[in-house]
Description:
Layout: E1 9-15, H1 22-35, E2 40-46, H2 53-63, E3 67-71, H3 78-88, E4 93-97, H4 108-111, E5 120-125, H5 132-149, E6 160-164, H6 165-169, H7 181-186, E7 193-198, H8 212-232
Parallel strand pairs: 1-2, 1-4, 2-3, 5-7
Antiparallel strand pairs: 4-6, 5-6
Amino acid sequence: MNRTSEYDFTVVVPIYNESANMEKLETAFRDYLAAASRPTCVLFVNDGSSDDSLQGIRTLCERVAHCYYISFARNAGLSAAIKAGIDCVGSPLVGYIDADLQTTPEDFELLLPYTADFALVTGVRANRKDTGFKRFQSRFANGFRRMMTHDDATDTGCPLKVLHADAARRIPFFKGMHRFLPALIRLQEGCDYKEIAVRHFPRTAGVSKFSMWNRLIGPLVDCFAYRWMKKRYINYTVAERSL
């Protein structure tokens, strides 16, 4: 049996070469799980790390209750790690947070109350603690994405999100998909999203895995993939069944 089906909410945490952050992750999730407002577990997804991250994940899951993991045979990228986590989740709600802890799992409690009315609740990073150049890249990419997708989203790069698991599994996944979740959710009939301000912190361990290409140029190219997909997305409603 999938143990995540015993919970209301599963937090997916993609991990790629974050061994320096494992101690902080252990503390952050031990504290959050003890105070969470509903039955919650954590699913770490090791994205083919080449450092000691996998051993760190194993140790964390032994020490902290309600923590589980899967591990890729080789590196497949952030979108693949998020998709694998969603595919594995048996709880009705699934969340996502980055392993760098520039956002905190405590702020899931700000998002969860809105899941009754929205298929996706996404954070917006207030008072971002990134460099000026990184903030400029984000503003430019967000502006171009809004022009291309008309999703009206403020900060799709915020790594703190909660989705209905059934809606998440219907999302058409592709590399870079995680930047288009509001627009992709809106492709589904009757589904919408809400943005909530969350805290943002500087990275204190490990190194960023993003370059100008995957933070700026890649997302611009992906906008055209989204436009192509939008015209071909399939929606249907089952009116009757005998299964």
